[in-house]
Design goal:
Elements: H1 9-23, E1 32-35, E2 41-48, H2 61-77, E3 83-94, E4 101-111, E5 116-125, E6 130-144
Antiparallel strand pairs: 1-2, 2-4, 3-6, 4-5, 5-6
């Protein structure tokens, strides 16, 4: 059976963004995996561990913010194949404490296609209950995706 051809176009861009996410040093502290099922959507799977808890025994807000920002960011950047986006604002709403266990952050592009993009994300725990949601604003930077270590298109 011949090997599958390398992805091209949008598919190559989505796989390259997944590789970029995997290569980010911060993800050594926050173990997680990104998948981009299609442009404008993202899913980050992670496990809440006790080492991310605050003093009252639930996940600290840094974990919520990191996963929501990343999910919204990658949903938006999946629509931009030449430049790295930057977060310019992010609103976060906590709805339920996260305890130990599997969780996922789901991102979705909402609006914008030129300079400014709006995307939202939510975190869902293993029981399917929403733990937080957020909305971010992202803008194009002068940073070329092709120049970033980890971004491997095609």
């Amino acid at each position: 059976m011949p090997p599958e051809p390398a992805p091209t176009g949008e598919e190559a861009h989505l796989r390259a963004l997944e590789a970029l996410y995997d290569a980010a040093p911060i993800n050594g502290l926050f173990r997680s995996t990104l998948s981009l099922p299609e442009a404008g959507q993202s899913i980050i799977r992670f496990t809440v561990q006790p080492d991310s808890f605050h003093a009252a025994g639930a996940a600290h807000g840094t974990l919520y913010f990191k996963m929501l920002d990343d999910a919204a960011f990658y949903a938006a950047n999946s629509l931009v194949s030449d430049r790295f986006l930057l977060t310019t604002a992010f609103n976060l709403h906590f709805t339920k404490p996260m305890r130990s266990g599997d969780a996922r952050a789901e991102g979705r592009w909402v609006s914008g296609r030129r300079r400014v993009f709006v995307a939202e994300a939510r975190i869902v725990d293993a029981d399917g209950e929403e733990c937080a949601r957020g909305t971010g604003t992202f803008m194009r930077s002068h940073i070329a995706l092709s120049g970033l270590d980890g971004y491997r298109a095609g």
